[in-house]
Amino acid sequence: MKKTTLRKAEPYVWILPSIILMVGMIVVPVITVFQMSMSEISRAGVIKGYNNFDNFRAIFKSATFWHTLQNTFVWTVVVVGLSTVLGFIIAMVLNQKFHGRKFVRAIVVFPWATSLIIQATIWKYIIDSQFGSLNVILKKLGIISQNINWTPSAAAYFAWECWIGIFVTIPFVTFCVLSGLQSIDDTYYEAAEIDGAGFWKKLTRITLPLLRPSLTVSTVLNIIYVFNSFPIIWTITKGDPADKTHTLATYIYKLSFFNGKAGQAAAVSVVGFVILCICAGVYMVLSLRAEKEEDK
Amino acid sequence: MNNSIRKHPWRRVFLYLFVFVLCIVILYPYFVMFTTAAKDRNEMYSLDMTVLPKEWKWSNFVEIWSAAPVLRYFLNSVLVSGGATIIAILCGIPAAYALSRMKFKGKSVFLGAVIMSQMFAPVVLLVGIYRLMMKISLVNNILGLILLNAAFNQAFAIWLLRGTFLSISPDMEQAAKIDGCNTVGSLIRVLIPMAAPGIVTTLIFVFINSWNEYTMALTLISTDVFKPITVGINVFYGLNMINWQYLFATSIFATIPVIILFLCIEKHLASGLTAGGVKG
Fold first, then answer.
1. Of A137, A142, B34, B131, which residue is the least packed, with the fewest Cβ within 10 Å?
2. Domain B69-278 CATH class label
3. What's the Cα-to-Cα distance from B238 to each of A91, B55, B113, B157, B244, rounded to whole Å?
4. What is the ipTM, given to two decimal places?
5. Fold for the domain defined by A54-295
6. Which pLDDT tens digits describe chain B residue by residue (280 residues)?
7. Residue A212: closest C-alpha in chain B
8. Do A273 and B29 count as a contact with CB atoms less than 8 A apart?
9. Model pTM greater than 0.90?
């Protein structure tokens, strides 16, 4: 009797260290954020108790918050969308046989392995309107004669930030799609060719359906990464000019650590949570369904 | 599809052109980083700018080490990433083992929670993390960063390790058990050696993630001597002008080892991520 109880408890002992680590460092902050979002917090950081959703009311009244929410949406959709399409095309090309394929594949993952803060800093230098590398190269090539101000407005800054986001996100997509492509059996294509299928037919009837799992993983993970991405925007603009280039991530940071409004920052975090939880739900349903299909 | 390429030679030209442009675009930032790192400070802010340095100033790569406590930053990064990797693996292996070899109540709930934890990036939790670290006096402390990085990498570690363990048949462990090995013994003597490639991949992946982490380090560490390199390089942002050449020279040192490590595990990562990811 005792032995069976012990055996039943065994798996929980194995997962215990992992649970302690994740509860301590992730779940506790989650609870703290919720608690803070509903509390009045002094500038010194003392929690003064429940304040009847004042933090939420304050952020919902702020135009910056709504603008930030809109930016976050544009940022996530544009960066994930374009990098998925471009990453997919690049993977299709790199799946062909050509000289130096190994070398090119190695280069493509560089941006994935490089710290975001370093890449963002390089791009900040590249687009600098006075001494930036882009102007210098274009002038040397004779394409322009005068320095161009690449970032005349908040929208221009934001567009550059999206480009950097796309640049650093492509490798992960390419990587996932390439490993998916390699698992597709060549005989499918051969059979399709015998049946007279053209490029588009092969793409839509064979490649895309078989790549669905790889594309799902890369898209869902990218949505989470990009939604939460902080270093690029923080390095290039810090959310300025006039708080017009924030996403939720940089807005939370600025509210809390620059403006001393920890309560409102927590409320914005909660909004971010709700959005992420919807994504999390979708991801879980999809991956558990894949698991069930696997078990059958 | 390879056939169609062979049939049309102009497609080959197009293919090489595409690959060529792709390489230029991807390598451009690295080219800028490298050439700028070797420029003289005065050249950087002169009106007559050149693409390549007029005079390659290799001494920049030496000067950075005395211009700022760069060595200290690197040591801190090694400590943070190394510590986080060890803890993430020590917690991750038993969990992945239980998930791949045992049946128990709440298994799918735990698996779901692991997947969920990936959603909560440090940024959204920053306010709460800061408060927690204040409470347990780990603000401005490398140990705090180690624990946080380990926790936020748990999901991926468990994911990759479980994928690896699932791909190995349990027969060998069973044989070891019949020979008198207990569960821990069979894990250490049989499964871990067999899963070594997957475990090394996980180690390196967690190490790289922690090495490149920026947001938590920026928020939690304010004392110069505790800064990891990602935050430390900010010293080269002067009050009036940025010392781009030092900034990029340091960045090169921070980037190259990571890229090399990454290229080592790339192949294994492919099977690990998709095996763990798609098969659940």
1. A142
2. mainly alpha
3. 41, 24, 44, 39, 10
4. 0.82
5. MetI-like fold (1.10.3720)
6. 455 555 677 888 888 888 899 999 899 899 988 888 888 777 777 666 777 777 777 877 777 787 778 888 989 999 999 999 999 999 999 998 888 888 888 888 888 788 777 777 788 888 889 888 888 888 888 899 999 999 998 988 888 888 888 887 888 878 888 887 787 888 888 788 888 888 888 888 888 889 888 989 998 998 888 999 888 888 888 767 778 888 888 888 888 888 888 888 777 776 655 544 433 3
7. B278
8. no
9. no
